[in-house]
Automatic annotation (TrEMBL):
Name of the protein this chain belongs to: Oxidoreductase
Pfam families, sorted: adh_short
Coiled coil, from the record: none
Organism listed in the record: Streptomyces longispororuber
Keyword Hydrolase: no
Family: Belongs to the short-chain dehydrogenases/reductases (SDR) family.
A single MF term (Gene Ontology): oxidoreductase activity
The entry's keywords: Oxidoreductase
Record PROSITE patterns: ADH_SHORT
Gene3D superfamilies (alphabetical): NAD(P)-binding Rossmann-like Domain (3.40.50.720)
InterPro entries linked to this entry: NAD(P)-bd_dom_sf, Sc_DH/Rdtase_CS, SDR_fam
Amino acid sequence: MESLRDKSVVVTGAGDGIGAALARRFAAAGARVAVNDLDAAKAAAVAEEVGGLAVPGDARDVVPDALAALGGTVDVYCANAGVPAPGTEAADEEVWTGAWEVNVMAHVRAARALLPSWLERGEGRFVSTVSAAGLLTMVGAAPYSVTKHGAYAFAEWLSLTYRHRGVSVHAVCPQGVRTDMLTAAGSAGELVLAPTAIEPEDVADALFAGMAEDRFLILPHPEAAVFYERRAAAPDEWLTSMNHIQQKWEATRLP
């Protein structure tokens, strides 16, 4: 991996959690970091901590402001912002739309804005914080699971399409991480994710190890690879095992 010193990095959803951990890690490596968050105060606090630049606002269309803050160049873009979006197929249209906009289309818009210059220069790095839900699924969270599958598919497509032209893509797929998003997952998160939850800094460590090896798929929880293999090799068995978890979760919610 090339040196990150003086590279321009954007991290969305960086006011806390995984995003803040990524901002700290990139800054420690010598990068100039644009810290984006919908919460302007949180963005400013992390930016001050890491010696970066606060770029508050909606992650769905942050690239123009980030480019302006960084002097017109972005070398690494971390599409980290996401919404948890619990619910079933019956979730409101607004929930589905919001999840789609932030978890997928924000990535698409960022790539659309950045790829022309990356392809011209022959280098660029796109980091997508997907979640293991994008490889597997998550009980009790249809909008989240579906849109995270979309985020993974888009990252995969970017990689296969542009890797020979100097663009590196990484899909970061942790399971439980001790953040506000884990809390927002409620009882399903407590059952499925909390027992093996890791710290945001562990996710940053996994990303940097994966970047050093130029790996596409970054698994902060290595056991996710085993689950992914089982899902592909024996889908009915895997779905049955997941249905058992669904039933266990439903039982915890009975009055």
